[in-house]
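Recap from last week: sequence in, structure out.
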Amino acid sequence: MPINLEKERLEILKRYRKLLRTAKPFLKDDDAKQIKKAFLISAEAHKEMRRKSGEPYIYHPLAVAQICVEEIGLGTTSIVSALLHDVVEDTDTTLVDIEKDFGSKIASIIDGLTKISGTFEYGTSQQAENFRKMLLTLSDDIRVILIKLADRLHNMRTLSSMAKEKQLKIASETIYLYAPLAHRLGLNAIKTELEDLGLKYTEPEAFKEIANKLTVNKRNRESFVDHFIRPIKKSLDELHLNYTIKGRPKSIYSIYNKIKSSNTPFDKIYDLFAVRVVIDVPLEREKADCWEVYSIVTDHYRPNPSRLKDWVSTPKSNGYESLHTTVMSLPYGNDKEGRWVEVQIRTKRMDEIAEKGVAAHFKYKGTDTRTSQAFESWLSQVREALETNDKSQSAVELVDDIKNSLYHEEVFVFTPKGKLVVLQVGSTALDFAFDIHSEVGAKCIGAKVGGKLVPLSHKLSNGDQIEILTSSKQKPSEDWLRIVTTTKAKARIKDFIKEENKSHVIKGRDMIEHRLKILGYPSLTLEITNQLRAYYNAKDANDLFYRFGKGYVAIEQLKHWKSDKEMHERKQAEKAIQVPIVDNKSFTKEMKRVQHDRKDADILLIGEDMDKVDYTLAKCCNPISGDDVFGFVTINEGIKIHRTNCPNSPELLSRHGDRVIKAQWASQIAMSFVVDLVIRGIDRVGLVNDVTRVISNELKVNITALNIGVKDGLFEGRISLMIQDTDHLVALVGELERVAGVIEVAREE
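Predicted C-alpha cells:
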C-alpha cells in the first residue's frame, strides 16, 4: 500500500496540536516554545523511522507525551522528555546535545529513560538492568518512571503489530514488573489497563472469553446498579451533597485471577463490579462527610463488618485514600437472594489521587501530611535498598526484592510512644526493629507486643504496640532472611552478614586455589570460577568461596567436580556439532551456520534439531506437540522447552528475555508425551471402569499413572497418559466428557 506523506504530515500536526491543547491550562512563560522545539527535534531525528505497524515513528513519542499530560497529569518538563525519550537511543543525538538545548534536568531524565546497551553476565537480564537503572533515578526524579510507564502503556496498546514471540516477552514483563510498579505509584487506571493488555497477549483465549461474558452481562449489570443506587441517591440528594455515583466493573485481569485462584466459574463470581460514590467537599470536611455517606449506605443495606476498610483515617503507602465497605443488596430480577456489593466512598481529591497516583499526590502535596508521609515512607525504603545495594547482588535479585514490596497491603502498628509505623502485611517483629533503626534490628533478640514477650518471627497485626528488646551480644544470621519480609530489613541483614563473612570468603578462595594446584590447575581463572559456580549452584563467586570457607562444602569435593568436568568434556567432544549455551544471539548465529539457507534457521524445530542442539522438554509444564512453546537457554542444562502459558513463563520472559529463543514443533514429529489430566465429577458404580475403558480400549492410549479419590459423593482423579499431540489430547478430552457422571476434564497446569 503506497504511503501518503502529505496525509501523514497533517496527522502528525493534528496530534501535536491536540497535545498543546491538553497542556494549555498549565503552560507558563516559554513552555510552549520548549515543547515546539522538542517536537521539531524529535520529528527530524525520527523522520526516516517507522514503527512495526508501518506508521511514522514520531506517532509514538507524541502518544507518550499525551499520556503523560492527559492520563498522569504531568507538566512541561515531562512533555519535553517524553517527546525526546528515544532520540538519544535511536539517533546520533547525544545527551550533551540535549543538555545544551534543554538543560541538565531534562538530560538527566532522558538518561534514565535510555536503555542500557552492551553485554550482561550470566544470571543477569537486560530487562532487569533497565528496570534497576530506572529505579536508581527515584532519588533524583520520579518523573523518569512515570514517563517510562506512559511509554510502556503506549507500547502495550500498539502491541498487535509485533511478532508473537515479542508480544509474549513484552506482555510477560509488563505483568511481572510494570503493572506492580504502577500500582505502587497509585496509577490505578494505568495499572488496570497494563494488566488487562498483558493478559490479552499471555492468555488470549481466557481474555476473550471473560471480555465476551462481561459484554453479554453489561445490560443486566447496569440495570442492577441503577436499582441498587436509587435509594442511596435519594438520601444524598436530601443532604444537598455535590456527588457522583456509578458502578465500575472489575478488570478482566482481576476476574481471571479470581477464577484461577479460587477455582470459581465466571457465573458464580458475584462481586464483578463495585459502586463508587465520589463527593466534592472542602478538605476540612472530607473525613466527616465520607463517614456520613457510609452511614447512609449502611442504613439502606446490611454491611459485612469484616469487610470494612478505612483508608481515609490511615492512607495506603501509595497515597490511596478511600472507605470500602461490602453490603448485601436486596433481591433483584432473577436473583432469589441478595448479593454482596462493594461500595467505595471517597472525595474528588482522593479520587484523582487514586486514578492519577503519584502525580496527583505531588499536586496536593502539603495539603495532607498523612498522604505525603505514607508515600515518602515507601519511596525512602526503595532509595535505601538501592543505595545499599552493591555489585555482588544481581539486578534480577534487586528487582525481585523491590518487586516484593509493590503489591502488598499494609499493616499499621505503633511504637511504645505511640508513633505510627506502616509496614507491609506479613511483616514480623524483626522487620519492625529494622524499620526503627538498622542497629536496633541488628541487636534485636525479641519483642513485646501488648506487654507479652514474642519471638523475632512474630507476625504483626493492625494496632499492635511493639517494644523491641536488644542485646549487645546479638548478631544477624542468614536465618533472619527467612524471617523478614521488608526490602529494608533484607538489605540491612545482607549488609551485616557480608561484613561478617568477608573472612570466610578470603579463606574459601585460598582453599580452592591451593587444592586446584594439587589437581593440576595452575590458577583459579574466571572460567573455572564460573564452572564451579554453576556446578555448586552458587549465586556468585563470593557465595562459592564462602561455602568452602565456612565448611558447607568440603574441599575434597573438588575432585568430584574435576571428574564430572572431564566426563562432560568427553561427551561434548563426541558430538559432531556443538551449540554453545550462551544466549539467543549466539544460538541464532550458530543455527544459521548449521542450517545454511533454511529460511527459519533461527527457530529451533523440536523433533528435527535434536542431533544439533541439546534440548529437553520442561517438566514444570510438560509441553506436547501442538502447544505454543518457546526455548529457554539455561546455564548448565542446555535448552528447556516451555509452553507459553507455563506458570514459570512470565518470570522467565520478563527476567531473562535475552535467553529466550523461538521454537516450534516440526511438521512431521513422531513422539509421545506424558500429559496429566484432572477429571472431576459425580461418583457412581462403574465410573472408573468406564473412564479407563474409553482411554485404553476405544482410544488406545497408554495410562502411566492413575489416582482417583471419592469424597461426599464427588470424585476427583489424576491420570497420566501418553499423548501424541494437542489434537490427540482434544479428542481424548471430548470422549471423556461424554462419560456419564464426568463434569470436568482439564489438563493439569
